[in-house]
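Dear colleague,

As promised, here are the two records you asked about, laid out in our usual form so they can be pasted straight into your sheet.

NAME FIELD: protein one
SEQUENCE, THEN STRUCTURE:
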Amino acid sequence: MKKNESYVKFVDLYSKYGVLLILVIVFLICSFSSPAFLQWGNILSTLNQAAITMVLTCGMTMLLISGHADLSAGSIVALTSIVCALTMKMTGSPVLAIGASILAGVVCGLLNGIGVCILKISFFIITLATTMILRGMAYILTDGAPIYGMGKIMNLGQGSLLGIPNLIWIAVVVIIVTFIILNKTVYGRYLYAIGGSPDAAVASGINVRKDIIVAFVIMGVIASVSGIMLAGRTNGGYPSAAEGYEFDAIIAAVLGGTSFNGGVGGVIGSIFGAIIIALINNGMNLVGISAYYQDIVKGIIIVAAVFIDLKTRSLVMKH
């Protein structure tokens, strides 16, 4: 009995702090792999490059907690970056460009939410469909060519404050807001309840349909923020941009302890997961490992993370 209790405690401890252990191990391996890794400029550059993924991971974490995911997130990032660039080119107004981009993100999220909650289509199918639709729209709007010239919005993507890149500051703000929503609001508690047991959530009086639609809309808004960040960093909108970003966000969230089955997770763990992915990519770049191998590593990581999630859940339920 004592052995079982100790084992359950270990599993519970790992589920809470395992991502920190992985982060430390990855950091140490990267440190020994290349002397350039520990340079402040490299660390800052790594975090700056990961900032957009961190932001996207916040929205994905909320959806995963509710028992859903958005495979169209990367396409929303690309489309909203193009909307931002086109509006900026036509009006010259950063406010209008940012507003138009966020509005486009709201519409995209709303379409996904309606598809899941009103039309009763699996989130996997509807977001896979909107992935292709939105990516096609991105190519149509641009005729397949990049839209350059972001004006003052470039300051968001390329400027800095107190020596820290603006993209990192934006990511910090989004992380804080997401943490507050999930941990300090009634809506956040509802998301955990919905992900844990939709039927029980309905029985307790939670408007599951509305709350899931709102979660998809929030995902759309967060993806549009990522799109604005990307447009500012690259000084334009690119129809081929952000491919695979949704999978980076999912990997980061699951690696950070957010369950694919819903009801479990948190944004802080997810951000640690995003940082781990960024460190692995940076470490492999520094030692000259091809980007193709990086994709293989990401695939192995997500399989391992899901396996560990399933095993820890089953062990806790058994004991």
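NAME FIELD: protein two
SEQUENCE, THEN STRUCTURE:
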Amino acid sequence: MIVKVPGSCGEFVQGFFHGEPILITCPIEKFSAVEVSDKNFSAETLPEKSELMLKKILHYFCAEQNFSINLQSELPQGKGMASSSADLAAIAKAAALFLRKDLSAEKIAEFATEIEPTDGIFFDGVVAMNPITGKLIKKIYLPEKFVVAIFDYGGTVNTVEFNRRSDFQIAKLGDNLNFDLIKNSALANQQILFKPHLEEIMNFAKNLGAAFVNVAHSGTVIGIFFQQPDSLIDKKISAIADKFDFIKFLTKTKIIDGGFYGKISARRRHL
């Protein structure tokens, strides 16, 4: 059995709403995958936070580990791409399924936030959530389909140590994603984690036809979003890379629904 959870390209928005910290998830088609099997059992060593999540799940269900568990990820660490959140959620869901137990996204969020501030990419769709408590605040409608080019400023950020939140107050949180809100959130975060020439990159990308640019509020990546279809995306990505050679192009991917995916068929499956 394999459970996969998508990572993210930073956050669409992060700040405060009615005094409560929130982020709006930005799930992408890159995953952390956990395979659980009762064959060739061995207590494989997991990363510290993943090991802690597994122990929480076993304790919660009063169970012992009698299965092998393997974690693989397409997500770089310390970049603001929700690598740890995806790992933790995939570990929790896969272990619960193997034990034939039900574990909701809300409960997983509760466990995850006991370990670290968490990105809610394991909630279905795109959501606004509290990264400190794990509370689901609202589901957000994304009106278009997007391809995102992810660029990296370099280095890493420890999201546990870097637990500062933008004081950007979200005046209105509607059901539809407001692209001006994404820009405002990215620029407000410059006072917390500065990204050189961000406004210049935004303007250049807009002139190329990009819909908007977002950032990892506690990471090193930025995302440049293009509406699908766009036959010139690769040329536009090259133009951005040539113009701003201090950022490295990481990958081109799609915005997808958050949630849990399983290797059952080529289709998505809710687990």
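A couple of things worth noting about protein two: The two ends are 11 Å apart (CA to CA). Residues 264-270 have pLDDT under 50 and may be disordered.

Best,
R.
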